Amino acid sequence: MGAWNLTGTTPASEAAPKGDALSVSQAVEMAAGALDALPLLTVIGEVTGFRGPNARSGHCYFQIKDDAAAVDCIVWRGVYGKRTFDLRDGMQVQFTGNFNLYKPTGRMSFVAKSFTLAGEGLLRQQVAALAEKLRREGLMDESRKRRIPAFCSRVAVVTSLSGAVIDDVKRTLRRRNPLVELVCVGAKVQGEGAPAELIEGLRRAAAIEPAPDCILLVRGGGSFEDLMTFNDEALARAVADCPVPVVTGIGHEPDTSICDMVSDRRCSTPTAAAESVAPAMADLAELLAARERRLGSATQAIVRGASSQVDTFARRVAAAATGRLGQLRAVLDAAARRPCLQDPTYVVDRRAAELDQTTDRLAGVIVRDQARHAEVVARLVPQLMASTSGFAGKRHALELAASRLGHEGRALLSAPAAALSSQAASLDALSPLKVLARGYSIAYSDAGVATSAAAFKPGATIRVAMADGEVTGTVNDVRPAEESAG
To answer: pTM of this prediction?
Structure first.
């Protein structure tokens, strides 16, 4: 079978003979061969009609299109499993792959072997990456977001002062609640330098005195590229760090920017943002009326409950008072029946009778005790006399023993006493004091007892001990024994 070229015709040398028709399968086979001969292609298009991954096979089926054409596209499960982002309708994607013809139906599809974001899709991928980064830092946590007052009396709005958005916000606030004070801070919302102006606008709005209850950061709808200003990281951090709660109304309902994610309240449009901070006067009136009714009902319920409690307490107090009075009355009646209160002399007479009885009992007891003790003493006298009859003999024996003990003691001590006297006499004869008593003396130098004249030098101190005291002086001259003899 001849090759198929891109014009849909065969070369003249290989053309089928005139009148020789092909079957459908032959024609499809020829077309499939021509598609297989095409090189690897890279195609950029918008995803539409996305279906997948298929619950059973895991493959994805959709179309990619541009302004003039569309083609079916297939991404097999293995290829889609390696993706770095999820495909969805409206994304601008760059696919690399080959065309394929499904022979049973003759349907041509582009089978993608890889795909990446392109154009707006790349921007969306960058925005998604930044959003994930800020989410991990906690800037999108609900616990961090501040409560917007239910009744804002002073509102600052940061937006372009030349567009229709500021007029919509003013008109909405005048219509819903003309008492709300609006402070406008102008800033670019699109183009080069817009994020920096919006950051400065937020700073100026937060610095207003007195401080506003909240700040509206709003702009009208536009393309994804137009709204990229509000996906700026520095602006998102300024919204999160703003000291005044921030309400965003950026674009339309489907549009969601990073500033929306980190703000304290996200509204779908600028008008919705203005409505959320300015309750309508009619709504306020209805709310006050409803709260008045609730307050009245609650007050009536409290009064009824308190009245019921008062009645219960009154019955309990009455019952307690009646019981207590009955107890006191019984005590008083019992006291009134006591004889001491009926006859004042009753107690004295009874005490006197008891005292007489006690006196009689005491006298009888004394007499009986005296008689019993007299009998005991009479029995003890003979015993005492009998126990002392042997004292004389024992006293004589004791005197004899004392005499023998004294004699034996003197005999035992006579020899030691004589030896002690002899030793005392010897010790007295050897005592230096005895020598001193005979007229001798002892000389002391600074080093102690001096045994030689060489222990002294002229001018030294000398101390002389005698029998009855000491003499202290200064040495004037020292002469050896030879010189003294000469």
So the answer is: 0.42
